[in-house]
Design a protein that fits this description.
The complex is a heterodimer of chains A (501) and B (361). Chain A has 501 residues and is an alpha/beta fold. Chain A contains 16 helices and 23 strands. Chain B has two domains: 1-39 and 325-356, no CATH class; 40-324, ABC transporter involved in vitamin B12 uptake, BtuC, CATH 1.10.3470. Classes of the chains: A alpha/beta (501), B mainly alpha (361). Chain A binds chain B through residues 16, 49, 53-56, 72-73, 301-303, 322-324, 327, 333, 335, 337, 340-347, 351, 354-356, 358, 364, 367-369, 371, 394-395, 397-398, and chain B through 6, 8-10, 222-225, 227, 230-231, 234-235, 237-243, 245, 349, 353, 358-361.
Chain lengths: 501, 361
């Protein structure tokens, strides 16, 4: 017989124009790992912010162990035993682990006592961490451990984790799951927010699914298939991308020994990158952001020029060419940052279509622009890629992330590229749009184009790539066929084990 | 508590309304200032905005509107290109002076030789002078990453020193009884930028201003260069992705605005002003910055704003002589216009919301 830790009853929160949460009720039992599942914008964040005292509900009540629970601020929530690990860490890089943890405490103990306590907690939960190290030197996984230990020192009854695995390698995920299961066995409840269905099925015994601010269901995720869960989340049939067997065609693009010094104080340098891309190939490049992804894309798009010989297309060297010269040859790119890089926020979709399609769609004649044709092209993208918008005159910034991403990808795909390079094509995009985008990339490759997908999302790369390489600290591993690779091997590649090859 | 909330799409209505409200707000703010100075605010506002157009001396003031408006419009059109791309030429005043010196210099070098070629050569020299002066901040920016705001502004003072030196030295009128200042070009037929129709105020500079308005409109709306300028202003990173070369754009925008400012200076020295003198420049280059923003960086908006600004110049002079308002008060009045237009401009992209205080992250 389990006992209810936190009871949510009819929680409602409205913001101007949106109902973020609409009459959400469910229970979190003591000692369970409870998944909170939903697309972007389904209301997961608002809900946990209410539990953590960052937002006050308009209606509804919460009860913690039978007593009324109305946290006015995070401090009150923490005092009641609620702790939260945010998706984005709030750590000072120039301070040590122990100093960072002390900063978050009400009454920090002496430095030596705190360090001893950190070591003790980190060992008992299998989270190796040296309290004296600088946070700036830690990997994303280690930084997350700092946040988790910071929470564990409060001995919480409820630990909220927001998308904890999005930045972790498979090995780090395995460590995290062991820790969470141990916590559960000790009676701590965990509210686990994620949209990764397999993870939830592996870890959680209860899942509450939100869609459009409303609770859709509470179920046992182990009894449902990933597809069932996804359809509950999306509220309809999901087009899962079906990858086809493709035989590799001729060599199209070759990068040989490409090196690039850092472009800014916080930039990553690229070191001796080589790759070969064939017709019909989808090369997935994995790795945690900040390992040279943006730099690699800039070198391919032509925003940064390299030596002419570093990049060859069909034997023609193009490393020195400008973005539009490369577009003329059929090398197109879609950068990660949708607003402000791939698209100009305040400009209309027509103008944003002009932005990259001027050359290939002949939207300009001797310098004069053909706006009606640009509008036609923008509308074609909107129609073919199901971009939800009032029309081609809407400003890019008025579109939701998923819709703008569909527009950005569609704009390149419909220009009939020979080579398309995309960076984080589905980052922060809802599941339905992500599936559409992946399918579009697969279709493009099936038609004979070559695609490079740079992504942090391993599930995505495993779903669509024919070959895989990992980018680590500016070095690219040798590409290997996806079917040959096990999850462990991928993890090792991401960790840089094969960087020298 | 008031809060600004970004609009999903820029408001068209506020785009038109903001300049109109800014003028009204300036009248109110200026009226308060005039009242504090002990003048009748209603009379002051009427003198500035109404008298130049409709009083009994309007026959004199109306042509002045074009004479004062043309250089403002010409300079502001040039500046607006750069402003849209986030390239800030603050030194149009200096480029205006250098354009005048070069234009007048070309004429004075061949005085008293008469030829139909002299005036076209002066136009060319004026434009090249302004262009070259603007190339100094442009090249320093592209080669060494200096700030074009500072460099172009500092060069105004250099140009002013050069102007003084010219009027006292090299270009001083040999028959001028030792007074500073060059020969009067109005008395040199080949070099005189005369009115095309006597008494209309329309000289060739007015025609050039109109051409500049139409040219820049087509450029921004229909040409790749204009699109790249707008794109760079909106989002430099997206512009780079679209294949814009930022350095070329700096050279182009500063060069274009410099050449137009130089032209304005040349038309002024060969026409309304007539001579190179120490006090030749009266701040058109700075006022044009206000004109550019008041016109919302839109070519036709700039044309209207230039005329409105000319009106406050003329009206301001009348108010100075008839009401005894200090000239600083008129400048403050013009400054208010820029202040209000920038403030109200926020409302095209933001709306003001009344919200209850709440804990947020």
């Amino acid at each position: 017989m389990t006992k209810t830790l936190l009871h949510l009853n009819g929680l409602t929160k409205t913001y101007p124009g949106v109902i973020a949460n609409d009459d959400v009720s469910f229970n979190i039992e003591a000692g369970e790992i409870h998944a909170l599942l939903g697309e972007n914008g389904a209301g997961k964040s608002t809900l946990v912010k209410m539990i953590y005292g960052l937002v006050r509900p308009d209606h509804g009540t919460m009860q913690m162990e039978g007593a009324s629970f109305v946290p006015a601020e995070p401090r009150a929530a923490r005092a009641a035993g609620v702790a939260m690990v945010f998706q984005h860490f709030s750590l000072f890089e120039a301070l040590s682990v122990a100093e960072n943890i002390a900063l978050g405490m009400e009454n920090p103990p002496k430095a030596s006592a705190l360090s001893a306590r950190i070591t003790e907690v980190s060992q008992s939960y299998g989270l190796p961490l040296d309290p004296e190290r600088l946070v700036g030197d830690l990997s994303a996984g280690e930084r997350q451990r700092v946040e988790i230990i910071r929470c564990l020192l409060q001995e919480p009854k409820l630990l909220i984790m927001d998308e904890p695995t999005s930045v972790l390698t498979p090995q780090e995920v395995a460590t995290l799951f062991t820790t969470l299961k141990k916590l559960k066995d000790e009676g701590t409840s965990i509210l686990y927010i994620s949209h990764k269905l397999e993870e939830i099925r592996a870890l959680c015994e209860t899942a509450t699914i939100l869609r459009g601010g409303k609770k859709v269901a509470t179920c046992d995720p182990r009894e449902k298939s990933a597809r069932d869960l996804a359809e509950m989340m999306v509220g309809g049939k999901l087009n899962l991308a079906d990858s086809k067997e493709t035989t590799l065609g001729e060599l199209v693009l070759e990068i040989s020994d490409l090196s690039l010094p850092p472009q800014s104080a916080f930039g990553t340098s690229l070191k001796n990158i080589s790759l070969r891309l064939h017709q019909g190939e989808i090369l997935g490049i994995g790795g945690v952001a900040g390992n040279g992804q943006d730099e690699l894309l800039a070198c391919m798009s032509g925003e940064v020029s390299t030596t002419a010989e570093a990049i060859h297309l069909d034997g023609l060297s193009l490393g020195h060419m400008s973005p539009n010269e490369r577009r003329a040859l059929g090398v197109l790119a879609a950068p990660e940052e949708r607003l402000g890089h791939a698209a100009a926020p305040d400009m209309s979709l027509t103008e944003n279509a002009m932005l990259t399609a001027m050359t290939r769609k002949s939207l300009s004649k001797s310098g004069f622009l053909d706006w009606p044709r640009a509008k036609d092209f923008a509308e074609q993208v909107i129609k073919k890629f199901d971009v939800r918008t009032p029309g081609s005159q809407s400003a890019a910034r008025s579109l939701s992330g998923g819709n703008l991403q569909k527009f950005v990808i569609g704009r390149e795909v419909l220009q009939d590229p020979k080579v398309l390079i995309v960076n984080q094509p589905t980052w922060g995009v809802d599941a339905a749009a992500a599936a559409d985008i992946r399918q579009a990339l697969l279709d493009l490759a099936a038609k004979g184009a070559s695609v490079i997908v740079i992504s942090q999302d391993l599930d995505e790369l495993m779903e669509i790539s024919t070959s895989f390489a990992a980018l680590n600290a500016g070095r690219l591993s040798a590409a290997r066929p996806m079917v040959e690779l096990s999850l462990d091997e991928i993890g090792l590649l991401l960790g840089g084990a094969d960087a020298a090859a | 508590m008031l809060r600004l909330e970004k609009r999903p799409n820029p408001s068209k209505m506020w785009g038109y309304l903001a300049p109109v409200l800014a003028v009204i707000a300036t009248m109110i703010g200026g009226g308060v200032m005039f009242a504090l100075l002990g003048k009748d605010p209603f009379e002051a506002i009427r003198t500035i905005f109404y008298d130049p157009l409709f009083s009994e001396f309007a026959w004199y003031y109306r042509p002045q509107l074009l004479i004062k408006g043309a250089p403002l419009i010409l300079i502001a059109i040039g500046l607006s290109m750069g402003f849209r791309a986030g390239i800030w030429n603050i030194g149009a005043e200096g480029q205006y002076i250098i354009g005048a010196i070069c234009g007048a210099g070309a004429a004075l070098a061949v005085y008293p030789f008469d030829s139909a070629l002299i005036f076209p050569v002066m136009i060319l020299c004026g434009a090249i002078g302004g262009f070259a002066w603007a190339m100094i901040p442009a090249i320093l920016k592209t080669k060494f990453g200096t700030n074009e705001i500072l460099v172009s502004l500092m060069l105004v003072y250099v140009a002013e020193q050069l102007l003084a030196s010219m009027s006292l030295g090299l270009m001083k009128n040999p028959e001028g009884f030792g007074f500073p200042g060059s020969r009067n070009l109005q008395q040199y037929a080949s070099a005189h930028n005369a009115e095309l129709w006597a008494g209309s105020g329309i000289h060739l500079g007015v025609v050039f201003a109109l051409i500049a308005v139409i040219f820049s409109y087509i450029m921004l709306a229909r040409h790749q260069m204009g699109f790249h300028i707008r794109l760079t202003g909106e989002s430099p990173k997206a512009a780079k992705f679209a294949g814009v070369n930022p350095n070329k754009l700096v050279i182009y925008c500063l060069g274009f605005s410099g050449a137009l400012a130089g032209l304005a200076g040349m038309f002024e020295v060969a026409g309304p002003s007539g001579q190179i003198s120490i006090d030749f420049n009266v701040g058109y280059g700075f006022t044009a910055i206000i004109v550019a923003f008041l016109g919302r960086l839109n070519p036709f908006g700039i044309m209207l704003a230039g005329l409105l600004m000319a009106l406050t110049y003329i009206g301001g002079e009348i108010a100075q002589s008839s009401l005894g308002l200090p000239s600083a008060a008129i400048q403050a009045f013009q400054g208010m216009l820029l202040f209000f237009i920038l403030a109200l401009d926020m409302l095209t992209n933001f709306k003001i919301k009344l919200v209850n205080a709440e804990v947020r992250t």
